[in-house]
Write the structure tokens for this entry.
Amino acid sequence: MPELPEVETTRRGIVPLVEGRTVTAVTVRESRLRQPVPENLTALLCGEELLAVGRRAKYLLFRFARGTLIVHLGMSGSLRVVPPATPFKKHDHIEITFAGERRLRFHDPRRFGLMIWSADPVEQHPLIAHLGPEPWDAAFDAAYLHAAGSKRRAAVKNLIMDGHVVVGVGNIYASEALYRARVHPRRAAGRVSLARYARIVVAIREVLAEAIEVGGTTLRDFVKSDGEPGYFRLQLNVYGRTGEPCPGCHRPIRQAVIGQRSSFYCPACQR
């Protein structure tokens, strides 16, 4: 599943290619996504200038004067800009053509993605309004996270993966951030000190920023061809490394199921 770094990598890749350009054509080859693609999508977009491409959590927000196109990549989706003569692939469901023959294609084999329209302020949309802060928001700090977890018995890993608390911390990044912060993933959220939450905030930001940066190194290929996600090139300390030596103390990395997700940690370094 594309996570926040992959979605942000996508956004950064398509911005210089389509932002500020006018939509000249829309082709919908398959409208049956998680929610049906609007039947009037062509009428909504054609002739409209794309003012900006934003992101909220894992939603891409294509902002036009008359509203916002909300896009989610789902489990297997991707966006890429292709040359005019590029043949359609089997699961290329939607193509938006911009002035200058810039063609943006939405590819989604499993069709769990989303492309819907919001004429109202997108921040008020039901999919967006309930989300927690972005990891880099000033509001996301140690005091905020400490307060959010103060009465919770659930594991701290579950807390930082809760999109109502903070967005964008997927399973890989949660394991890696807690390792850097030296906090055991099973520790009850209500038993994590303010100082430890401060380390967790820093670690979350570092891990996500590094994943975005690594994604950026493959960005040109992503935009022009197959969309290989950047996190496969991220140097992982614990995730997927069960039984391998911890980079810090060399004791074996352990694996556990927490909140129905595989978690990886060092029993010596993380308390």
Strands lie at 23-28, 52-56, 59-64, 67-72, 78-82, 92-98, 102-107, 114-118, 254-258, 261-265. The domain at 4-129 is CATH 3.20.190.10 (N-terminal domain of MutM-like DNA repair proteins). The chain has two domains: 4-129, 142-265.
